[in-house]
Amino acid sequence: MSFVDLKEALLDWPYDSDKISVRKIRGTDGAVKIQQRVELGIVQMFSEGRPDGTRPHGHDSFLGYHRHRLAEYEKRNGSVVGFGLTGEECRVLREEASQYYRRYVANFVLEDYPLVVEDTQHNLDLLDFAHEHAFDEEDARKLEVFRPYILMMNARAQAHIALKEGHPNSALAHINRGLLSIQDVFEEQGEPEAFDRSDEARILRNMRSKLASEVPSHPKARLKERLRRAIEEERFEEAARLRDELDSGEASAEA
Predict the structure, then answer these.
(1) Which of 189, 190, 73 is nearest to 127 (CA)?
(2) What confidence tens digit (pLDDT) does each residue in 76-131 have?
């Protein structure tokens, strides 16, 4: 084995503490890989499969391997009762989730949003699996603390995909679903008040506000807003006319 000094590669790509520096390259094996510049070097990940390029027990991931174990267990026993993940197996799954986290953050910076959705969904599935099958609830809780962040990143990526396809209303729907899912998590954890002050909710609300200002409102919604303002300002004749327009429009829709 020959050892290579990375000095030239690091000098060619200076570290910037103010941003996440990532790039895609094609490796000597022809595979596309993602590189991230970190303070003490360069991290390299495979763009497909597990980020480290391994195949645990012949599977794409440890999650895939344990799903296979579960299916085999159920086939042998006729039930999943008694199946579980040990503390060591949960630790390995946490390490896998960390790899996927690093890659989906890198892909978000690269604006490869479909891959962000794919990797965040992997981690959400991993959390669900651990939550259902960990022998020790504490092992599952160690993963659950990351669920709001993963949901937030998934919602942002879905929204960006919808925007690229020219569907701003769908983008808003993804953001709203993400907010509701995060709220559910905090409520299930017995901390509903933590939702309002969470960074995840703040980021999604900011994105929603920005989008809402760019999405044309529905004509009916605009009429209702004009009616509300007319009533508040005591312009009753205009309010009556606007109410007639609304009633006429609703009658036509029903017809």
Answers:
(1) 189
(2) 999 999 999 999 999 999 999 999 999 999 999 999 999 999 999 999 999 999 99
Fold of 49-212: 1.25.40
Each residue's pLDDT tens digit, 173-219: 999 999 999 999 999 999 999 999 999 999 999 999 998 876 655 56
**Domain ranges in the chain?**
49-212, 219-254
- Does the pLDDT at position 254 exceed 60? no
Rounded distance between C-alpha atoms, residue 28 and residue 34, angstroms: 13
End-to-end CA distance of the chain: 79
Task: Identify residue 48 by its one-letter amino acid code.
Answer: E
| Residue that has been written with the tokens 């391994």 in this structure | 54
Write the DSSP symbol of residue 14.
-
**Could you tell me if 24 and 54 are in contact, meaning their C-beta atoms sit under 8 angstroms apart?**
no
Contacts with 108 (C-beta within 8 Å, 6 or more apart), sequence order: 116, 153, 156, 157
**Quick check: pTM over 0.90?**
no
- Cα-based angle 62, 153, 144 (whole degrees, multiple of 5): 55
* 3-state SS assignment for residue 172: helix
- Side chain identity at residue 244, one-letter code: D
